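Before the break, one more example. Copy the sequence into your notebook; we will annotate it together after we see the structure.
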Amino acid sequence: MALLNRPVQRTADTRHVSRETATSWPGLGLAVAGALTAWCVHRLVPAVPVLTASVVLGIAAAHLPRLRVFVRGTARPGLSLAGRRLMRIGIVLLGLGLGLDQVLRLGWATVAMVVAVVAATFFGTLWLGRRLGLPGDQPLLIATGYSICGASAIGAVSEVSGSDEEDVAASVALVTLCGTLAIAVLPLLQGPLALSDLAFGHWVGASVHDVGQVVATAQTAGPGALGEAVLVKLMRVALLAPLVAAVAFSVRARRRGVRTASGRRPVPVPLFVAGFLAAAALRTTGVLPDAALEWAHTAQEALLAAALFGLGSAVHLPTLARTGGRAAVLGLAAWVVVAGVSYVGVVLTM
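Here is what the structure looks like once it is written out:
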């Protein structure tokens, strides 16, 4: 009897996928348009990273009087799909920017410093977020974004935690806001904190959230600081895979014996995390030509921009305002922790 039912089930699944694809095109098209607009903004104002502009444009699209009806209605399935699927592919390609040999070249003292910064920021933010009573998975997602790599890390963890879309959007908005403020604030502190250009690069790489924001902040101190900042930042990105795997393991332990809606048990390590690690290993071998790495970087930024536009479009400011005070307190506290611990770490290791 089960064998007779399988063709019917497959036909039903195929129809479901076809319907989902058909209803997704308007939103996917809008996400692509948003990513292109963000790129144009970056070209006009280089200090504004593409990914930051994508989130802001997504939030704006969700609140413009005429466009918001389309965003919340016809375009919603495609925008949600962009926030999930395109995010996964972008994170896999992010691994191609991570040469493990480059990271290890910085030395074990710097590696230990970065691990300490990530651990202190993650667990401190998670604890405080729960004490403040933030709803849903917001404490987990905000802790992830501040400790690893901003919106990309939030998207990765939300995939395995099954977080509500509104929690994801609110967390992305907060982390993006603070990361954008860092572009203006941190360069002003280099002199008062007596940081050399190289030390400033390490501090920026260890404390600023998104890779684009790191570049925008560190370039103010010259190419030497920029190179060091990117390497330290990539070291933090390398910790994304074990963190997502740990969250997946925790979710799997809580749901032991419970199947997902598709009838499958949760996997220990998500496929996109395995792809991220494989991409990093491939980059480390040195077999990929520079042209291929350039193409991959462009594709990764485009995919993440479209995904973050989709996530930004899910932000509902009136809802966000109801927890805005507590979220702002958590964001400020997390910012102080990551900047303070990383500054101490840089002073001790350089």
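The radius of gyration is 20 Å. Confidence is low (pLDDT under 50) at residues 1-18, 257-264. Try to locate both features in your own notes.
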